[in-house]
Each structure stands twice: as C-alpha cells, then as structure tokens.
Specification:
Elements: E1 3-7, E2 10-13, E3 18-25, E4 33-39, E5 46-51, E6 57-59, E7 67-72, E8 77-82, E9 91-98, E10 109-110, E11 114-119
Parallel strand pairs: 2-11
Antiparallel strand pairs: 1-3, 3-8, 4-5, 4-9, 5-6, 7-8, 9-10, 9-11
Amino acid sequence: QVQLVESGGGLVQAGGSLRLSCAGSGRALNIYTMGWYRQAPGKQREFGALITSRGSTNYADSMKGRFTISRDNAKNTVYLQMNSLKPEDTAVYYCSAGVSTTPLTPPNYWGQGTQVTVSS
C-alpha cells in the first residue's frame, strides 16, 4: 500500500509561483508513474502532469510551459513547480501513483489533496 501526502499549497497572486510536494510512504515510489491532477470548484478532476519511473513526462495543455513535474526517488518525493500562475489554476491538487504510464488509465493511489488559490 502506498500513502501519499501533498504539501505546499496556499494563496498566491496571479503571476506568482508555488512548488507542491508529494511525499510517499509504505513503498518506494521509484517503480510508479507519479502524477498531479486537479479539481476546480464545480468541475471534474482533471489530469495535469505525470512522470514515469524512467523520467519521461507528459503534461496537459493547460500546464505546458508553466508547470514542471519532477521526482526525487531518494526522498520518495515528487514535485510540481508552478510558475506564472493564473486564477484559473485555482483548484485542489492531488498527487497520484500508478502503474500505467499514460493518463488514460486512472492511478492506483491518491493523496488527500492540497488547495491552491490564485488571486487576480
């Protein structure tokens, strides 16, 4: 079983930056594809970014060029660096771990989420 705990969310002004962290426990995360999803108020949870065990990345169009996903297997942690934040990035951000390398298959594990609010 994998437990995931996100941190780093908060309130930021438009144009600002935040770095989210997701710490794993229970199992080493290096074998999993790690991802970040988000859910805005009144909307469904949507895919944001993923990084495979080999380091390949995949981003939703909404995150390309502004967000960067990375992982530190030694720390069992995955990160999401978010730059040039916009009010429409406001959402609860969820960390995920899974065996699939594509966002077409739902992850196996989820964190509890961390709130990101971008003010205009």
